[in-house]
Write the structure tokens for this entry.
Amino acid sequence: MVWQRDVDLVVPLWQGGGHIGVAAGAAALARMVAPSGGRLHISVADGTPTAHDGVQALDTVADTLQRLHDRLARRDPARVLTLGGDCASDLAAMRHLAARHPGLTVYWVDAHADLNTPATSPSGRAHGMGLRTLLGDGHPRLVGTPAPALHPAQVTLVGTRDLDPAERAYVTAHGIDRVAAGEIAADPRAATARRHAGGPAYIHLDLDVCDPGDLPAVACPTPGGPGTPAVAAALAAIAAHHDLVGAAVCEYTPDTPHDADRVRALLAALGLTG
């Protein structure tokens, strides 16, 4: 069954992670996925990625997110798909949907937690700060709103395995739900085991959650992940357990040699292909 949504956003933002290959990834994903509702292609400036206040390419990332916010505010969609780009590509969509759907559960399906701040980030890259900005911490231009978009209890990390020390401390201190790669491989339903059925959910899928031996076409390949069949089964289990109101697929580098059918299998698990 194809997942019906109100709008698709194609966001070739790459400056948040510094890997230009993911810009082509957004376009490649858009070719694989038939539109549902409207489709908006968001232009991204090619400006010099100058660092400000500890964030690389802050102006480009923040300006892109503001334009996305303005577009979403005008259309007010209830269901949104984002095809990125890097992991900052869907922050505006998540903020919009979190306000639209109180109690939204967010599944952060990603090898990385993206819980750094400008003060803790080793790289200063915005794509490693995205989830933390949604939780209300970070550069004001990325956080965007006075109140946090999400609270830690709304988040489940899925397949996350490469955390910086400050991120690990944050996860522990705030009791963020975490489902390890091995748990997903053993039982795809493990991600939803502690969540009530039927509530609204959002899936943020960074393709680097998959083991790079199975899917190497990602910006930040990270060993130790589950294979694509296990990830696809977990995505399908999440979508079946919840009312899926939003999803994003990001950090794809299509020019890296790989089996594109594995990407298509992940898209099919989200109901994005017939």
Notes: Residues 7-269 form a domain with the Arginase; Chain A fold (CATH 3.40.800.10). The mean pLDDT is 96.
